[in-house]
Every structure is written in structure tokens, then in C-alpha cells.
Design brief:
- This protein is of the alpha+beta class.
- The chain is built from nine helices and 21 strands.
- It has helices at 19-24, 45-54, 74-81, 129-138, 161-169, 214-225, 237-242, 278-287, 376-379, and strands at 29-33, 36-41, 56-60, 66-70, 94-96, 99-100, 106-108, 111-116, 119-123, 145-147, 152-157, 181-186, 189-194, 203-208, 230-233, 291-298, 311-315, 318-329, 334-342, 351-356, 359-366.
- A hairpin with an 8-residue loop joins β13 and β14.
- α5 (161-169) packs across α6 (214-225).
- The chain is globular, with a radius of gyration of 21 Å.
- It starts with 18 loop residues before the first helix and ends with a helix.
Length: 380
């Protein structure tokens, strides 16, 4: 395999422990996420999608940096950061959470992992929550330590991922439940394994706890997975839009609140515990929102790739919102999109016009997620 390391963002952009391995295995292009390189190109993105949904892919997601929260007040502090009620969160459990500011805006949508009674990780999307959490801690009056540990996740995703995990860890790994974690070792390599991932397929995240083992871990997993059709890959834009999964900075940002996204289940403004944004979110809940996220089916020829700009959405010539994520789904045979539109035009069946890079396209509001809405594939 040809090898090239001429990806020249400079030393201020960090490389994951798997960077050299991904280049050896065919990574042709990278983007920047949490100030790090992330592989975005292993060839045809449609083939990457089929590799994911038919067999399995291994993705370098070391960019999902961890904010580690420890100390006697770790549980109270972690709850302070999120409107999701964590009071019943058990040790060994994971939860999808939102981090909100005082106005109720979303700062990040990480996975929260509880490793111990006073030990939490926030596995981040693309924003600097380490700095936010350290700043909040300064004047919180709570006894906590906020650090970024030497932890780098991989995602093993797809219908064959369970059999690959069995080959790596034995039969005992098969009883790991959806959104739970386990501390394990593989050939002496220290790991946390969780039944999570950014694909809505059956999948696992493998958190390496010592970056010196990055190359060895990648090769070990690929070797075990080849008989099951495992391919190196990147997180699939097609699959995540099919699943209605958010991409931070695209579908949500600091000016987006949970109610606009239909994520009411992640907010409990009536719980006793205090959290940042509680009063603002209570006010938003009571007063309602002026816009909502919807799913769109776009007519016309298949899109040549995902949108790289926000596309204007019109209703009878009037601008009513924007498309935040759009792609052609080869499985569904249609163009699909997530959009934020005024509530007056957010009902199912509403017909809209989207100004794509190729010109105007007729669009209809449809149910989201677009595929497997009950997540039967991921939970199985």
C-alpha cells in the first residue's frame, strides 16, 4: 500500500495515534475536528456506506476527545453541565447528552460515560468543552478535577461488528448492552469498550487508554476483522443523515436549543438538580419555539455529494429556513436532508423549495429518521 504523510496543516493540528495506520490503509483526505486530523476519504463515499451497512468499517475517531471529570463532586458537576437527568445513571452506563449555556443554546452533544462513582467522561463532538468545563469549575465551589486524558476512540460499526468483537474479546463481550461500557484489555492494551457509535448500525466504540498502542490496536482489529469483510472507513454522512443524527456546527450550534431539534427527552427542567440553562430552557418550553428541525425529501437528480453550504428554503417565494445537511441515499433512492424551518411551515407534507448548488428543487417534509426510526439495527 502506498504511503504519504503530506497532509500539511502544521503541528498545531494534532494527529491521532492511528494516523499513520489510516494512511497505510488508504486514507486519501483529512478534515479538522477538535483541532485534530480526521480521515474523511477512503475512496468512494457510497462504497464506504455499503461497507458499513453490509459488513463493517473501522473508523479513526480519535478526534472525539474526552473531558474527564473526577473528584468527590464529579456527579454533581457533570449534572450541572447538562439538562438531561443523570440521577439514575449507573456505573458502566452511557448516555447521549446535551451541554447547554445559560441561554439554553447547545454547546456540544457528547456521549457521557460513567466509569465509576466519581469518574465521568464526556466524549465530545466538535467544540472546546474542556475549556468550558474548566471555566465552569473555577467558580462552581465543587471539588472536581477536569482534564483531557490520553484516550483515543475507534469506531467499529456495521452488522458484522459483533462477530469481530467476539473474535477479539471472546463470547463474554456479546452480552454488552446498548449504551453500556466495559473495561477490558486486548493483548495487554488497556481499553474501554462501549456499545455506541455514530452510525445507527450495530456498533462499538473502542477507547484506547494509552496512545503508544495506536498502531498495534488498529492492525490487531483489522486482522481480526478481515474474514468478516471489515474495511477501513470514515463516518458515513449518508448513514448519519438517514438516521437523523446531528452534526455539530451544521445541524446544531450555540444558537440552537433542544426544543427546536425535537430533543425534549434530553431536557428535564423540573428536576431538583440545578444545571446551566435551566431557567432559559424552562422559559423556551413554556413559550414554544419559532422554528423546528424537519426532514426533507428533495426531488431531482441524485446529489453529487453532501452540501457544503446552508441552502435557503422557501415557501411560495418567502424564505422560511435553511437546509443544514443533505445527501443522496442510494439505499432509499432519493435525496434527503435535515432543515431548520419556521414552525408555520414545519408540518408533515408541507411542500417547499430548496435552493441547492444546482438550482431550485422541490422538497416535501417527511418523517425523520428516514431509515430504521426505532433503531432496531443498533439496539439488536
Amino acid at each position: 500500500m502506498a504511503q504519504s504523510t503530506d497532509f500539511g496543516f502544521g503541528t498545531q493540528i494534532r494527529k491521532s495515534p492511528y494516523f499513520d495506520a489510516t494512511v497505510r490503509w488508504g486514507a486519501q483526505g483529512f478534515s479538522v475536528y477538535n483541532h485534530m486530523y480526521i480521515p474523511r476519504d477512503f475512496g468512494d463515499p457510497e462504497q464506504n456506506f455499503w461497507n458499513l451497512v453490509n459488513d463493517a468499517i473501522l473508523c479513526d475517531v480519535g478526534v472525539e476527545r474526552q473531558v474527564e471529570i473526577t473528584g468527590p463532586d464529579a456527579a454533581k458537576f457533570t449534572q450541572m453541565l447538562t439538562p438531561r437527568d443523570l440521577s439514575n445513571m449507573a456505573m458502566g452506563q452511557c448516555k447521549y447528552v446535551l451541554i447547554t449555556n445559560a441561554e439554553g443554546g447547545i454547546l456540544n452533544d457528547p456521549i457521557c460515560l460513567r466509569l465509576g462513582e466519581n469518574h465521568f467522561w464526556l466524549s465530545l463532538a466538535d467544540s472546546d468543552i474542556l475549556l468550558w468545563a474548566q471555566g465552569v469549575a473555577v467558580h462552581s465551589g465543587l471539588d472536581v478535577t477536569i482534564t483531557e486524558p490520553d484516550v483515543s476512540p475507534l469506531q467499529l460499526q456495521g452488522p458484522q461488528s459483533g462477530e469481530i468483537m467476539r473474535a477479539l474479546f471472546g463470547d463474554e463481550i456479546m452480552d454488552l448492552r446498548y449504551y453500556w461500557l466495559r473495561e477490558v484489555e486486548l493483548d495487554g492494551i488497556p481499553l474501554i469498550v462501549s456499545r455506541t457509535g455514530w452510525s445507527s448500525e450495530l456498533g462499538y466504540e473502542i477507547y484506547l487508554r494509552d496512545g503508544n498502542w495506536g498502531d498495534a490496536l488498529w492492525e490487531r482489529i483489522m486482522t481480526a476483522g478481515l474474514p468478516f469483510g471489515l474495511k477501513p472507513g470514515h463516518t458515513s454522512t449518508i448513514r448519519r443523515i438517514e438516521a437523523g443524527m446531528l452534526s455539530y456546527h451544521a445541524d446544531a450550534d450555540i444558537y440552537t436549543n433542544p426544543y427546536e431539534l425535537g430533543l425534549d427527552r434530553l431536557v428535564n427542567v423540573d428536576m431538583e438538580a440545578d444545571f446551566i440553562g435551566k431557567f432559559a430552557l424552562r422559559r423556551i418550553r413554556d413559550n414554544g419555539v419559532s422554528r423546528k428541525q424537519v426532514g426533507l425529501r428533495l426531488d431531482g437528480a441524485p446529489l453529487s455529494g453532501p452540501n457544503t453550504r446552508f441552502w435557503q428554503v422557501n415557501h411560495q417565494g418567502e424564505a422560511v429556513g435553511k437546509v443544514t445537511s443533505a445527501v443522496y441515499s442510494p439505499r432509499l433512492g432519493q435525496n434527503i436532508a435535515l432543515a431548520m424551518v419556521s414552525v408555520e411551515y414545519a408540518d408533515l407534507g408541507t411542500e417547499l423549495e430548496v435552493y441547492t448548488k444546482s438550482g431550485p428543487a422541490h422538497a416535501t417534509i417527511v418523517e425523520r429518521p428516514f431509515f430504521d426510526p426505532r433503531k432496531k439495527l443498533a439496539v439488536a
